[in-house]
Design the sequence.
DNA sequence: TGAATTTCTTGACGGCCGTCAAGTTCTGAT
DNA sequence: ATCAGAACTTGACGGCCGTCAAGAAATTCA
């Protein structure tokens, strides 16, 4: 019904004209998932590019021992599915489940045609991937070498910096935050309580945190 | 002197013709570093694409606490420098040192021109990044959720699988392997000794390992 | 609004693994 | 071959943090 609803939300298509967006829209498949549902390598997602049309998507990966790791928190207009983009990728198979509301997808072969036709798309995707890559590099380094305390302190200051405010609401439940930071909900509770005892932050009802001493927070080891 | 020495080694240029390779070659800058030297965000590497012309390159990242993390082990023809590829990237600044022998580099703006002119390049780069991305996703999940024992067991079986042999020489010193797996040389020694005691592997002189029971190794938690 | 379920917090405990140290083996250069 | 330096191994110790459990707080839904 609506013309190029989700397609025009996506930055990677930003250079394209209206007729081209129409072409793409005709290729796109739309899905709706009730909030809280999880798609787990279902039907097509694994060999398609996913576009978040509405809501928030959490991308998890399953480890061999059954634990899950929160890798990305995607917002409207974000894309996912690097597996979609190259040919002889041995399926990462296990892993990569998501929880969401509205999602569009584009089949791998269709998307590859698009990239051939409109080179600006692949350059845009490169930018997205480059950023994601350096984010993951930092995350790997961080979980591999720093303490839970330091990782949490970093997360708080970075989130505050991104929102440009000292007082903000944690965008995740403790359990998700824990799997994101590679720790447990209990440890997060304890460390936040510690930071508060040290006067570095103040915790307020509703997962709201106020930073009192960002500099000292960053010195946490 | 030699025509397109390193350029023709690189898979991302594989679709290009000889004259085009010449063009690229004229843009490329060559460097030579004595084995074991480390370039540490020196002169241009941070805003250029790096091509490994010869030898082996270890890509490290420095954590806030001063520890280093081994992220990639690059071989001849591999590329590095995602930072090179997008404009408004706030420099990851600290981090990313490498050790190597021969390296070529292409300035960011030059490379962006190339991608505009030859779309096949950016698609090839996308493939490389996609693979690297899913590798890093697994690594993040692994270090965040699995024990040192399980990570090492995984590393051994994967390396063996990649080499298609049960007996192989560890390609890294214990210290590098340790920073790669997010642990310490001591722990690696201990775990290998444990595996040997359990009859899962046999250690031979010269960092050579023979796998006796791959299935059981994978069950390590 | 009130009750049921989920999420969060705090305590106690224990194990994994990082650190320090000392001895041994390996490696490479002369 | 010899020797110096690096890399490796093994032990002892301790702290970080994950686990289990129980109670408190918060959120959801009727």
Sequence:
């Amino acid at each position: 019904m609506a013309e190029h609803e989700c397609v025009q939300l996506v930055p990677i298509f930003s250079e394209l004209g209206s007729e081209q967006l129409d072409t793409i829209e005709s290729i796109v498949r739309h899905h709706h998932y009730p909030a809280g549902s999880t798609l787990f390598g279902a039907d097509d997602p694994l060999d398609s590019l996913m576009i978040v049309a509405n809501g928030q998507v959490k991308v998890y990966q399953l480890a061999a021992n059954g634990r899950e790791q929160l890798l990305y928190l995607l917002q409207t207009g974000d894309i996912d599915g690097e597996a979609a983009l190259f040919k002889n990728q041995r399926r990462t198979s296990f892993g990569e489940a998501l929880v969401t509301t509205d999602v569009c997808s584009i089949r791998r072969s269709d998307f590859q045609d698009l990239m051939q036709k409109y080179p600006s798309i692949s350059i845009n995707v490169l930018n997205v991937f480059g950023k994601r890559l350096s984010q993951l590099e930092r995350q790997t380094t961080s979980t591999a070498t720093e303490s839970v305390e330091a990782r949490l302190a970093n997360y708080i200051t970075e989130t505050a910096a991104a929102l440009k405010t000292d007082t903000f609401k944690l965008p995740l439940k403790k359990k998700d935050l824990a799997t994101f930071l590679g720790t447990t909900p209990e440890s997060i509770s304890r460390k936040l309580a510690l930071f508060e005892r040290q006067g570095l932050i103040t915790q307020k009802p509703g997962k709201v945190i106020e930073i009192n001493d960002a500099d000292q927070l960053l010195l946490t080891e």
